[in-house]
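Lest this sound abstract, we think one record worth quoting, the chain in one-letter code, the fold tokenised, each line plainly labelled:

>
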Amino acid sequence: HLDLPAIIWLQNYLLEHLNEDQTVVVVSHDRNFLNTVSQEIIRLRDHKLTYYPGNYDEYEMKMEDKAKMKDRIASALEKKRKHVQDTINKQRQIMGKTGDDKRGAVIASRQKKLDRLAGHNKLENGKRLKQSYVARSHLSYGVAVEREVPEPPVTIPLPEPKELRGNPTTLLSLNNVTFSYPGAAQRKSGPVIQDVSLSLHQSSRVALLGPNGCGKSTLISLLAGDITATTGTVERFSSLVKIGYFSQHNVDKLEGHATKSAMKYLTDTFPDDYKSEPAARKYLGSFGISGSCAILPISTLSGGQKARVALAVCVHGGPQILLLDEITNHLDMATIEGLVVALKEYTGAVVLVSHDAYFVKAVCENTEDDSENEDDEDALKAQEEVGIVYRVKNGKLTRLEGGVEEYVTKVVSENKKGMRGGAGRPI
């Protein structure tokens, strides 16, 4: 898995160091990467390849425009068809009442027109395409233009955080925290985290950016209480503050239960909450682990399915804080989009470690606090710190007012300074 600095380096390498006669084919779920490097999108659906010029955002807009165009054409044809069919029905009624056989010629003429509407139609590219129609009865015919059937959106149900007595402003804080691994002094290595302070409020959206090994996951572990600060304090509002912690370790941990099904794993983890199979199936099903997936051995599940199982366990019980360490690693774009929507609606605090620039922007930037307590100094401070992007470097946190774009700019500049021997590697 490439970290964000490596992804940024790769983007610039593909854009600046390839020859014009070189072609690159990319399979990726990183939307920002595709937008940066792609000149054409190839869509694979229903065993067919369709080509769209432009990057991923342009592809999405074209797909939306195409669907709207097909809907307009289909609606217009349906309106015409209905008008002609109404005329046929009216002429038949008149012929039945009057016995006027001349009406039969009018009916036959209108029927041919109806057949033409169903059989030959102009499409959005202006060409005429022979299309079949379905005769449901002698009064009704199917519309020839096939509407675009969109992929169903992925929904991820995050339980609402349980309300805490006293409605605290600060849920969790690091106060001048330093952390060193045992034996660091003997190895003459410095602290991984050095004099870091961070506060999480009820609506916080915090992103931690930096290369692999810079201390992001250590910070998350300190917040989760998995490790103890060497110096400084970690303060939780109360023991009732529940933390949902997702990490790659949670996904890897499933391998230790490889022969169990997801349903069995859930009922073993929360025996008091799931005493019946239907309840466990329903909960897993809401995370997309339904049908046979719920009862197959975990070892047979895909990486994305395992991540969904781990997420279902992580958010169980309505935690007030979500710590998500590289949660998008095995998720496809539709699931990432569903997770973005869910996190935007989630009313608890969120801390992200991610190398997906689009995901970080969508969750942590352009966020607002709906707090109405404008006279409370702590509430005002919390409102200022709703969506924050931090850079983790040399054990310290630096707030990036310009968000992800500021981070990208800094990394590009540093990569250029660190290049050795032409394109080289980021240093």
